[in-house]
Amino acid sequence: MASTHSAEVLVASNRGPVSYEVREGGALHAKRGGGGLVSGLSAIGPHTDAVWVCAALSDADREAVRRSHGGRRLSADATGGQQVRMLDIDATVFADAYNGVANSVLWFVHHMLYQTPLEPVFDAEFRRQWASYEAYNRAFAEALAEEAAEGAAVVIQDYHLALAPRMLRQLRPDLRIGHFSHTPWAPPDYFRLLPDDIAAKLLGGILGADRAAFLTRRWADAFTDCCHAVLGPGIPSGTRIGVHGLGADADFLRKRAHEPDVAERMTALRAEIGEGRKTIVRVDRTELSKNIVRGLLAYRQLLDDRPEWRERVVHVAFAYPSRQDLAVYRDYTSQVRRVAEEINSRYGTPGWTPVVLHVKDDFARSLAAYRLADVALVNPIRDGMNLVAKEIPVVSDEGCALVLSREAGAFEELGDDALTVNPYDIGGTASALHRALTMPLDERAERTKRLAAAATALPPTQWFLDQLHALDPDQSR
Ligand code: F6P
User: Fold this and answer.
1) Same fold? 7-246+462-476, 250-456
2) Which residue has its alpha carbon closest to ligand 1 atom 7?
3) Would you state the CATH architecture of domain 250-456?
4) How far is the CA of 182 from the centre of ligand 1 (A)?
5) What would you measure as the largest C-alpha separation in the chain, in angstroms?
6) 265-271: long-range contacts (C-beta < 8 A, 24 or more apart)?
7) Domain 7-246+462-476, second-level architecture
8) Ligand 1 centre and the CA of 405: distance in Å?
């Protein structure tokens, strides 16, 4: 296929660096996103011709695409100078691919979230959605093939786009293609819940890349184990496997955490918490894998087992809405609220609210909580990395004790200085919270220093450059 553009570096991900909303009078307002990829891509500088290919996620995004020559080039003001090609994929196809397959099946498989007596069910409806997942991946592969210069480097992100590497390879054999998984990878016994042909297509899709990379060695090994179990011994295509443990962006976080809006939020939070109380902080999307409900249950057990903590501690829990198109996420969000309210009505007193729960996304307030945290609670069932575990020690004002699930990718790098928990063990988590709350301040400060150093070992810019470098033609295949 002929290339109509000439990007030397291309990124492809479902969610792009910009999203839109329609304001009164029909004006479009652009909102720039954050995260590792956005700052990572800034590392290649303005002189490299780079394009980010992403999907339109909402009606407002689709409108922005219509107003910008089919999304070929959104306004540079809106994207912070980044060249973005937003794909207006048919809304039904998108919903089937994103909600139906990516988030309801692949996410569940890799995070091992099914209640297996009744689910998953791979029926005719699933097959229909799978056809949309293929179409969605094809739309990305075709756009990338059009945009890429001869021999360009293309880094394709995540489980939404597992088929795109092989599709792109078929369209453009000249390209250097990488795939990066931001999620865990399921172990073979769990991955094989998928129908055999689907399992083989997903692995074969990623193996269309020159290199498949993961956040930790554990997830990379699980991927190769799945290849052996499903496709037979050896990685058939010669695809190289890599590990890049994305770290926190210390410079950005420390600067941002000292801006006036964060100071304002700290004052407000201190008032909610009350004078002289310790804080257990968690900040998450309201995501099934984050295990927020069991975190609340462990806190309740702490208050039961050790009444001396009543009135002396507050659990500050920020649980920001996520994937609310899916009923199971809406139900989980209600459950989080219910358990928090239950704890407050059972233990609360006129001067003490045991759980301060906020559900409205506010980055400045998250940073304020990071700065105030005595204890950070990060207890996912399973998580690709978990950047919150890395960010809190970097930002914390006086050091904080980290209670960390052994199932978070971040555990590989932070485990030595964290208090480890089995995320299903409520009693064990309650004890770890007690140990964290009673950790001597000098030990806490020492551990926080080491945690912050480990958390920032691979900043987003280097993380991204390493992946590009690994795709260089002179890197051994
Ligand atoms: O890898 C997981 C991921 O795609 C992350 O990039 C991001 O944190 C999260 O899922 C967001 O999910 P969504 O785009 O569905 O809100």
Assistant:
1) yes
2) 182
3) 3-Layer(aba) Sandwich (3.40)
4) 8
5) 71
6) 265/362, 265/364, 265/365, 265/367, 265/368, 266/368, 266/371, 266/372, 268/365, 268/368, 269/316, 269/356, 269/365, 269/368, 269/369, 269/372, 270/372
7) 3-Layer(aba) Sandwich (3.40)
8) 19
- 183, pLDDT greater than 80: yes
Q: Indicate the average pLDDT of the chain.
A: 94
- Sketch the domain layout of the chain as residue ranges: 7-246+462-476, 250-456
Q: How many residues does the chain have?
A: 477
pLDDT in the model for residue 477: 46
pLDDT at 98 over 80: yes
Region 46-65: what's the mean pLDDT? 90
Q: What pTM does this model have?
A: 0.96
> How far, CA to CA in Å, does 37 sit from each of 84, 249, 415, 435?
13, 11, 25, 36
What is the rounded average pLDDT of the residues 293-318? 98
| Mean pLDDT of all residues in 52-59 | 95
**Closest CA to ligand 1's atom 6:** 182
Q: Judge whether residue 358 has pLDDT over 50.
A: yes
* pLDDT top residue among 4 and 413: 413
Mutate to test the pocket of ligand 1, among 57, 285, 324 (most ligand atoms within 8 A of CB): 285
- 427-477: pLDDT as tens digits: 999 999 999 999 999 999 999 999 999 999 999 999 999 999 999 977 754
322 CA to centre of ligand 1 in angstroms: 9
Give residues (CB < 6 A) around ligand 1: 15, 158, 182-183, 322-323, 384
254 CA from centroid of ligand 1 (Å): 24
